[in-house]
Amino acid sequence: MATVYPLYSSSSGNCTYIGDDKSGVLIDCGVSCKKAVDALSQHGIPLDAVKAVCVTHTHSDHISGLKVLTKKHPVAIIAQKTNLDILCDKDKINAACPLVEIQNGQTISCADLEITAFETWHDTPASCGYTFVTKDNKKAAVCTDLGVVTDNVRAAVSGCDMALIESNYDRQMLINGYYEYNLKQRILSDHGHLSNNDSGAFINELIASGTTRVCLGHLSEHNNTPAKAESTVLSSLGRFRRNRDYLLEVATKDFSGLAVVF
Fold first, then answer.
1. pTM of the predicted model as reported, rounded to 2 decimal places
2. CATH assignment of 3-255, among 1.20.1050.90, 3.60.15.10, 3.90.1310.10, 3.40.50.10800
3. Which percentage of the chain shows pLDDT scores above 90?
């Protein structure tokens, strides 16, 4: 069965693997190559199993380990054209890596997965999420770094068997925290991040559409806690019963060994 491994997920570094010990893809590499390789190894996944890296956008917490990783293992880089251009212009990937452009709404095949990109609103030149359909017709989504759930996001993610969804901040912690006003406004904007409340509302829709596995991700280190994210999202899901209608996990900043089978 296919499995999603949120190896690292926070505002300081993001790296997720989907597949098995033979074949799969990474979504972003915003931690060091060593951390990514060690985390894969702890799941029994060799680096050779990684057939490509799907890049969501070019903020450092999503690409900081990409150059070293692709020197060690020069696999295909899948991304929107704008992001491929940025990665090449800023020397963030090994020049030997094949570049695979994917447009929003387009589907490509890699590592026994059908991979589709969808647009997300974030404060970068280009940003996307991805859905993955396995050979046994199971569907997963990785959807973080979006300030608002658009109709395009809903259309892409609804009906997925499994979804990794951003739950970035607790609104009161952010408002009362030490961040400068402009940074707070950026996070709160439609091109910022999803709050726990917004994440809970979206997950409510997803469970109603048939999603049974949910993982909260990209939690802020300063404006959230795993306990707050979990309790806030659960408060939005009162019409469903946990561990009967859905399973809920929380991805963390540090490697936790989490694996979500779907």
1. 0.97
2. 3.60.15.10
3. 98
Q: What is the pLDDT of residues 59-113, one digit of tens each?
A: 999 999 999 999 999 999 999 999 999 999 999 999 999 999 999 999 999 999 9
Q: Do 119 and 152 meet the contact criterion of CB atoms below 8 Å apart?
A: yes
- Looking at residue 85, its pLDDT comes to 98
Of 89, 97, 137, 87, the C-alpha closest to 113 is: 137
| Both structure tokens of 19 | 């597949």
Q: Are strands 213-217 and 247-250 parallel, antiparallel or unpaired?
A: parallel
Q: Hey, what are 42's tokens?
A: 């702890």
Residue 29: phi, psi to the nearest 5? Answer: -145, 80
Place of tokens 């990474």: 26
Q: Where are the domains of the chain?
A: 3-255
pLDDT band for position 2 (50/70/90)? confident
Most distant pair of Cα atoms in the chain: their distance = 51
d(CA 47, CA 39): 10
pLDDT at position 241: 97
Cβ(250)–Cβ(216) below 8 Å: yes
- What's the one-letter identity of residue 227? A
